[in-house]
Amino acid sequence: MSSQILLSGGDKYYSYSGEIFGDVSAPATIPMITIDNTGLRDSLVEIQPYFGRLVSGSNGEALGIAVKLDNVTVINSQTYYVQSTNYGTTDNAYRLFVPRNSKLEIIRLNATGNNTQISGVNVIGYYL
């Protein structure tokens, strides 16, 4: 799922990417969630990325996400092989304000050694 779903009260929304496998290209950028229009109200969004296992490979290998608002990168977070011991936990959640009527994109970033890594992302938005 990569679209925005409103909860029954209409004051929150969510989106789940599900498990996404890597790409054969390197480095790869793989769209995970795209919400073309976040709605008529500003929101506070929590982004929860997850990965199936630690970043593998050598010191140059990376795995992470980029978050774009209206085609502007606002988060670019990549963990490298030497930093990967605690990656994939809920400590890596991101929160940001999203203006009304914004396009929200979450993109997976990875290097060669992590092309087949399973990853995903969850988004929870709270209208303000």
* Spatial arrangement of strands, main beta sheet: 1-2-9-4-7
Return the domain count: 1
Q: Could you give the count of β-strands?
A: 9
Q: Look at the structure and give the CATH class.
A: Mainly Beta
**Shape, please?**
elongated
CATH topology, which one? Answer: Jelly Rolls
Question: The biggest beta sheet, please?
Answer: 5 strands, antiparallel
State the helix count.
Answer: 0
Order of helices and strands: EEEEEEEEE
Low-confidence segments, given as residue ranges, are none
Summarize the amount of helix as a percent range.
under 10%
Radius of gyration (Å): 15 Å
How far the N terminus sits from the C terminus, by CA atoms, comes to: 24 Å
Per CATH, which architecture?
Sandwich
The portion of residues forming beta strands comes to: over 45%
Report the mean per-residue pLDDT as an integer. Answer: 82
Explain the overall architecture.
It is a single chain. The protein is mostly beta strands and 128 residues long. It has a single domain (5-127), classed as Jelly Rolls (Sandwich). The protein has strands at 5-6, 12-16, 28-35, 43-51, 62-69, 72-80, 94-98, 104-110, 119-127. Strands 1-2-9-4-7 form a 5-stranded antiparallel sheet, with no helix packed on it. A 4-stranded antiparallel sheet has the order 3-8-5-6, with no helix packed on it. The chain is elongated, with a radius of gyration of 15 Å. The two termini are 24 Å apart.
